[in-house]
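Subject: Protein record for review, amino acid sequence with backbone structure tokens
Why sent: The fold of this protein is of interest and is recorded here as tokens.
Enclosed: The protein record, placed directly beneath this head.
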Amino acid sequence: MSATPLPTPDPARPGDTGYMAIQDTPEFVHLRARFRRFVFPMTGLFLTWYFLYVLLSTYAPDFMARKVAGNITTGLVMGLLQFVSTFAITMIYARWADRSFDTAAADLGERVLAHPGHTTREDHR
């Protein structure tokens, strides 16, 4: 993707650091879309899994009380798998971000900081 010129903050608006204009650039729009394409489905998947556990605990106590091995029940296994899935999602996200998101976000961030019209909050104090 070719780099588009960055907009300059509006000096007539005190406190304008240019974020509102930058968020409309194709690079930022692409980053936001890429982030949402990963995070929203992953969040939906986890919430479905979590609510399945809660609903089974509420409405299928016999199923959740079924012994798998010794005193270990289906409910206990599913509860422990909640922790496993949380850590797995965290690792998947970290790997995804390292490989395909952070580099592009850092490149855009460097371009914004290097842009001559860029200001920071400290510049306005």
